Amino acid sequence: MSQERMKVLGVDPGLTRCGIGVVVGAPGSPLSLSGVGVIHTSASAPLEQRLLQLESELTKWLDQYDPDVIAVERVFSQHNVRTVMGTGQAAGIALLLAAKRGIPVMMHTPSEVKAAVTGNGRANKTQVAQMVVRILSLKEAPKPVDSTDALALAICNIWRAGATSKIQAALKQEKTRVAKLVKK
Amino acid sequence: MSQERMKVLGVDPGLTRCGIGVVVGAPGSPLSLSGVGVIHTSASAPLEQRLLQLESELTKWLDQYDPDVIAVERVFSQHNVRTVMGTGQAAGIALLLAAKRGIPVMMHTPSEVKAAVTGNGRANKTQVAQMVVRILSLKEAPKPVDSTDALALAICNIWRAGATSKIQAALKQEKTRVAKLVKK
Q: Is there a domain that residue A179 lies in?
């Protein structure tokens, strides 16, 4: 079954560092890195100015890459409450911009991303980075290193979308088969 | 000392219910209610659509009332983690819109609001509602009741801004006095 190529912009949300990774490809075909970077905002700036800066820089990424899908890490508040609030707000800005442009959004948890990329939902940062390098046929770890998770998110999105569409195709085939049997 | 009148739009952030209250007045003068309402978004809609709807309706409020200041409740994640994330994201949208328009933002914690309005940082909802009715010379509790906290936020903002400017004025006076003494 052939799968359509897609361009996915992955967002590893954060206020101080927001990782961005753009990957192009289709499930079952080689994937390639299209763009990568990190948006920084100053911890000493007022929160509203940081959100505005993030929105403005994310907008530039969307203008430049015009992705088919935006993949955002699903945020949990297990750790530092203060950090998590900023992370959630940064994710919220990415979601808002996606909705404004009518770009589909998919969210993946950190363990879904790790499992998709390394086969192990509890893989560490180094293992994820090594697999990202291999999957995208890079010569070295992506720089800045903060963007590795965003690339992993984009890869995860392409592969999961492939799995989802395979399941949907199989279900459709099965429905057609059953419908034919019922008609007989 | 005369204080300038200001129009404050209070935002009690939330994804399912976001309270809005607009209050006009100056510290030491009677305050009046200018507008009040609640923005609802459906819990069954995708997160990005809820954020987009919130942004679009908040924009209408800002267009209609053109406030001098936006007062937003400072969000803590003491309680339900899932709710707090949505609350933080809703607050983030309000902050972003304020920054885009260059409208100053002030954030107040729930206990600061309660203390400002009732004199007691641990006042309950009924006590806050009763004081909001009295301060704004309303005939009955504001409707929808979800908007009471947004009105209390706006009131708190006007009074705290008054206190802040009084302190600043007193400091300025003292500096001038000391400067004169030093010159002598």
A: yes
